[in-house]
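**Backbone description:**
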Amino acid sequence: MAISADAIRGYIDVLVLSLLRTNPSYAYELAQRITAISGDEYAIKQTTLYSAVKRLEASGLVNSSAGVSPSGKPRTYYSITDAGLIHFDVKVEEWRNTKSVVDRFINGTIEGGTP
């Protein structure tokens, strides 16, 4: 079952930052990796991805640099900044807390007992 864009919208930045923690990448490669890691359950639109990396760059969470592909084609590579690493950790903790709260509703339980 495919994941809707609405369900994942607030966590696109986390996906991108997560991938950039290991090494710099360019937008097309990021899109391919997101699809592959999701097991083909989520395919990010190029416009969504470009908006995300531009937003992350404007916020100082990623840097961009000009590069060249092995075939000689110019590419823009993105890398995570120290601020991006800190932001990633904060957003991961936020996700864990959010998931915990939603899970309580899905499972029909509340902290300390049942509803």
Observations:
- The first strand starts at residue 25 and ends at 26.
